[in-house]
Amino acid sequence: MLLNRKIIHIDADCFYAAIEMRDDPSLRDIPIAIGGSVDRRSVLSTANYVARVFGVRSAMPTSVAKRLCPSLLVIPGDMAKYRLASQQMQAIFRDFTDIIEPLSLDEAYLDVTDSVHFQGSATRIAEEIRARVFEEVGITVSAGVATNKFIAKVASDWKKPDGLTVVTPDQQFEFVSNIPVKSISGIGRVAQEKLASLDVFSCADLQKLDFALLQKKFGSMAFRLSQFALGVDNRPVTVSRERKSISVEHTFLKDLLGLNECLAVLPMLLADLKKRMAGKKVESQLSKYYLKIKFDDFKQTTVEQSIKSKFNDDIFSILLAQAYARSRRPVRLIGVGYRLSPPEPLQLVLSFD
Fold first, then answer.
1. Is there a binding annotation on residue 11?
2. CATH class for domain 16-77?
3. Is residue 106 marked as binding?
4. Which CATH superfamily is domain 245-340 in?
5. Fewer Cβ in 10 A, N or C end of the chain?
6. Quick one: residue 55, left, alpha or beta (phi over 0 = left, psi -120 to 50 = alpha)?
7. Digit-coded pLDDT (tens) for 90-139
8. Which segments of 163-284 are extended strands (E)?
């Protein structure tokens, strides 16, 4: 266990909504969310804390959110504005360390183990980052400080919004024991139900579970779960996060009924995909075609096929038929894209003339 590391996880509080409230203070005391209009079958990106009191959450269909909170103001959002705020935050991070792993526009890990700022105090660094983001960007962020990424991420959520939680090495085991298993990355609803059937609800419960039984239920995932339950996470903060795919998707106003209706919208999606790829210079990295369908019961399926030689958009029609055949239910969303392989390393040509 690497107990000498100093890892900070920074997470902006309801980021998109916070930017909108910053720019229009009249929005601060009313329920707002970022997303599409209720008549378009969109989902919300985020909601402010006033809206969350009503049960409104990110990734919730707009229509459901409006039923929960009829007074909810849904704002289309402005990605250019959000990206600018994210860049301002990243610039602040770089004043303290170069070892930064962005997870999204509003979230990042920082390794400050070797930072000389504030005599190397990760707590003081986190406090200063929070103060500067508030002063320079105009929003609040929450932070978690710990010896590893898993605990730092959970800690950043512990006192949200606008909170700071520090977990020292001697507090680590007790802190982890109180963490609900649903906070472990990769534990979704199905995994939670499996663990609940074993009377496992917290990391303390997971610590007591026989590893052979855990492995029987979760296979190769069991070791990572057992390590996290003990507070062990040796993953480094990775500076370069390579793009692994490029894709577009569309949620339809009305469910698509039958394969022919699905095939009819494919040219539109492929045109959008080509626009998304323009200027990205990733053609040499394209390794697989992939297609995703979400059915009207919100279950989704993905199919992939390796790119053999030259590109052939007709492959997407074949993948669409394969995906649709898995359920044959009305379709609410289709996504198309490419998986990317890592870029080839540069070859240096040396001249000895």
1. yes
2. alpha beta
3. yes
4. DNA polymerase, Y-family, little finger domain (3.30.1490.100)
5. C
6. left
7. 999 999 999 999 988 899 999 999 998 999 999 999 999 999 999 999 99
8. 164-166, 245-256
